[in-house]
Amino acid sequence: MRSFVALLVLVSATQCFTAPTRVLSVSPSPQSLNADRISPILVTFDVPLDSATITPANVSVFARWSGVLTGTLTLENNGTRIRFTPTKYPSVGDWVMVTLSKNIRSRTGEALQHGFSWNYWVKTQRGTMLLTDFRRVPVR
Question: 39, 71, 100, 113: which has the fewest Cβ within 10 Å?
Fold first, then answer.
């Protein structure tokens, strides 16, 4: 019985001192207004991640006008950084939201406690204002 109680105390103490996985930095910066539309998305964590948890189900990128953005996910920096390289790019001026699931785990099993998300705007481009009238719609 003493062994069981000691084991229970040890497991409880280990869970109390285990910190959840945390995001340290992201790129493009949150709420930035001039992100390059073809640049990769980078997320840096405080610990190495379990590569099995870095999947499209756990890392999603959505643009307001372009919809779901597809791409490749890779781990870098000894597993502490996720790189999302898009194969479908957002439109210029698009609003992009990146969401990380709480199912992302470190190599030692600690989860990203509440998930994580941020958004940014893709840089706009100059227009020519050379417009072509291709159809008129009567409104009366």
Answer: 113
